[in-house]
Amino acid sequence: MENNNVPTRSFLEILLKSKTVSRLKQNNGLMIGLKIGGILFFLLFLSIAFYPENKQENSLESQELKDLISKTKNSIESVKKKTDPFVRELMIQSEAKKLEIKPDEYKKLLALQKSNPDLLPDVRRDNLLSPIVWFYQDLSPSQRLKLAGQELLWFFGVLPNLTILYVGWKFLQEIPQRERQAKYQAWQVIHTSHGQQVSGARIAALEDLVEQGESLSGLTLGNGADLSKANLEYANLSGANLEYTNLLRAKLKGSGLEYSRLKGVNFSGSMLNGAYLTCANLESADLLGAIFEGANLKFTKLKGANLKFTKLDGANLSGANFEDAKELTREQLKNTYLCNTNLPDDLKDLSNRNCEEDEKEWIDKWHKKLKIYPSPHKILHNSLMDAEKNRPVE
């Protein structure tokens, strides 16, 4: 049964008790500003409505002018009341003769009075305070109220545009804060999902951080974390611990993985073209069908890694360790740079194939051919340069 005794609340009551208004009330600075603004507005309204107009006549000339204006206005009002065209034209001729002006000039005054029935006196321009004197001395209270109302309407017309500009300014001003907040939330998701194998939120958080240019250097994930199909192109993952992570069909083009721990990682079908894996540990990693074209694998440990169908064209394998690597063929090494490379016994004859060639020129040639360009970030630049010059001691 419907209860008709429940009192209805007005929109104003609901608005005043809303959370938004409650929060605004808690802002002391805002409330003080609103109170002061309200008092000033009330005083301004009183001055506009009740400040008396100046009745003092400055000279005989001004009194004569006022009499003429009054007489002309009365004449025009009487003509405006006539609806018959013939009678109106006759009255125009008669009134123009009385006022000693031409009929055409009288008609102009009539048209002007029709379009502007409440014409205001000309604004004074003597000095900066003249407009204020004009407003309070020359205008009647009704004229002041009408003028203030027009200006108020204009202000409310402009207010939406001012609001949009203010909101836009605040939006631009708060961009750095929002970016910091987004990074904080992304890192919070990553830390919260630590130890979980499958987490779509973790992948999304990592992709967002990479897109924002945030460094993932030293990132540590729990063993068996699933990052399959993640897009981490040009990510800074130097020194990261991603052991036994599932990076199946992941996108890691141009990424920096120097000195990273990638033991047992599943890189099957992943794209690492142009990636930097100097001194990384990929022991027992599954690189089935992975693309390492133009990648830097200098001094990388690939002991026991599965290299079946792995594409290595243009890769720098100088000083890399392929001991006990599986499914590595001569065809795969055909277009790679080999110098001091530790290859399986059946491929030992290729270990120093390119030592007499200039390493940098060889790499630049293949990068140009494969349209692979250096990574946009400089990761562990000093350490990398040292690694390029001297093979680290085992």
Overview of the structural elements:
- Among the domains are: 68-119; 125-167, no CATH class; 215-394, 3 Solenoid (Pectate Lyase C-like).
- The chain is mainly alpha-helical.
- The longest helix is centred in the middle third of the chain and has 33 residues, at 141-173.
- Mean pLDDT is 79; it is low at 56-61 and 378-385.
- The chain has helices spanning 11-16, 19-26, 28-50, 60-80, 85-98, 103-115, 130-138, 141-173, 175-192, 200-211, 330-333, 359-370, 381-389.
- It contains 13 helices and no strands.
- α3 (28-50) packs antiparallel against α8 (141-173), α4 (60-80) packs antiparallel against α5 and α9 (175-192) packs antiparallel against α10 (200-211).
- The radius of gyration is 43 Å and the shape is elongated.
Throw out a few tags for this protein:
0% strand; 394 residues; 13 helices; Pectate Lyase C-like; mainly alpha
- The CATH topology of the domain at 215-394 is given as Pectate Lyase C-like
- Class from secondary-structure proportions: mainly alpha
Q: Please count the beta strands (DSSP E, at least 2 residues each).
A: 0
Give the N-to-C terminal Cα separation.
86 Å
Low-confidence stretches: 56-61, 378-385
CATH architecture of the domain at 215-394: 3 Solenoid
Q: Counting H and I runs of at least 4 residues, what is the number of helices? A: 13
Q: Name the beta content range.
A: under 5%
